[in-house]
Amino acid sequence: MTSHLDPMKRTVRLLLVALLAGIGSLSAQQDVMISQYLFNGLLINPGYAGSHPYTSSSLLHRSQWNQFDGAPTTSVMAIDGALRNNSMGVGLLMLHDQIGLTTQTDVSMNFAYRMRLGAGRLALGLRGGLSNTRADLFSAQTTDPGDPNYSENQQIRQSAKFGFGAYYHMQRLYIGVSIPTLTALGPNAQTTIPHMLTTAGVVMKVSSGVMLKPSVLVKMVESAPAQLDLNLHALFQEKIWLGAGWRTGDAVVGMFEIQVTPELRIGYARDFTLSAIRDYSAGSNEILIGFDFGQGISAKRSPRYF
């Protein structure tokens, strides 16, 4: 209910709901981004597949712009593992994204060829999958009940998506470059906006029981200014991560992750919006549950750094 809000706040909410209701008809489609990509690397780079000797899985849910009706929600399931003595990696990624009346479901397979390079490994990855987008137009609240644009329910777009990435990592350092969605093919596929993502991070020991991990992500999109993510995490006693991040023009992020057992980890992130929408939203929340398993888990002597 919004009866207690002043006229300006009611207007902002109504405008946002109208935007969310119509966004499914836009001709361009963008990639989903989350705050806990540091421990869910398969989402942003197919070359990440098989970067650990064990099998790694995770479930993540993100609720964005809390307090707004029809605000975006995102759910991600990822699982990947190494094959043939770590020379290959495969991964499955499932994503469900909802914003207003529009839902998008993506399922993709990821393959990485891994090779030794110096003290680390270089992986070249490919992604291929299917995307299904639909709009529940009958749920729209319109001023004109006879509007022909809303006369048919569940408008569906289906397409095949392809992307690629390169990922180099050592035990305490990683660098990656990727375009998760380079193109989408299909008779009614939406135009894609390729995002080029460059990531890097390093883990440093600062004292007994304390490690620091600074990291950066640069997102570049055609005809738009580059977006920069700066993050700093601290690892205490090889069990608890505490971190903070800054996303240019968007949000400040607080994060933590607990390594409950060598196999199980639980993470949480909270975005505090920096844009004008902060006056009407309490921010965004993410929760992540990760579970690592398989034969390689017995060799997991050190915590998971990335």
Structure description:
By secondary structure, this protein is mostly beta strands. It has a single domain (7-299), classed as monomeric porin ompg (Porin). The chain has one helix and 17 strands. The chain has one helix spanning 7-22; strands spanning 28-29, 55-63, 73-83, 88-99, 102-117, 120-135, 155-169, 173-185, 191-192, 195-202, 204-207, 210-221, 227-236, 240-247, 251-259, 264-273, 284-293. It is globular and about 55 Å long. The N and C termini lie far apart (42 Å).
Q: Tell how many strands the DSSP assignment holds.
A: 17
- Specify the CATH class: Mainly Beta
Domains, number: 1
Give the topology string: H per helix, E per strand. Answer: HEEEEEEEEEEEEEEEEE
CATH fold-level assignment? Porin
Oligomer: single chain
Task: Please estimate the helix content.
Answer: under 10%
CATH-scheme architecture: Beta Barrel
As a whole number of angstroms, the C-alpha radius of gyration is 21 Å
Structural class: mainly beta
- List unreliable stretches of 5+ residues: 1-5, 7-27
Strand order of the largest sheet: 2-3-4-5-6-7-8-10-12-13-14-15-16-17
Question: What are the main properties of this structure?
Answer:
306 residues; mainly beta; Porin; 14-stranded antiparallel barrel; two-stranded parallel ribbon; 5% helix; disordered N terminus
